[in-house]
Design brief:
single chain; alpha+beta; two-stranded antiparallel ribbon; 4 strands; DUF3761 domain-containing protein; signal
């Protein structure tokens, strides 16, 4: 009985330590024409311009509201850029 309980605890502990997979959102496309064929994948979030830490702190101190990602994470853009 003790061995079965120990084995169950080991399995539960191993499952709890296993890392969860990270989510990725790649956009893939392929366009072919008469003279040019273009294809590939891109990460749409990679091109988001975010402010530096100092600039973000300055904007927060001045009371400027942050932008929000689809997940609800706040971020600041460089001064003057829209969300």
């Amino acid at each position: 009985m003790v061995k079965m309980l120990f084995a169950a605890l080991v399995v539960v502990g191993a499952v709890a330590v296993a890392p969860a997979p990270a989510a990725h959102a790649d956009v893939c496309g392929d366009v072919g024409g008469r003279h040019v064929s273009v294809g590939g994948c891109t990460d749409p979030a990679a091109r988001v311009a975010t402010a530096s830490d100092v600039e973000a702190a300055s904007q927060a101190a001045n009371g400027q509201p942050p932008c929000y990602t689809a997940e609800g994470v706040p971020y600041y853009t460089p001064n003057g850029d829209p969300c």
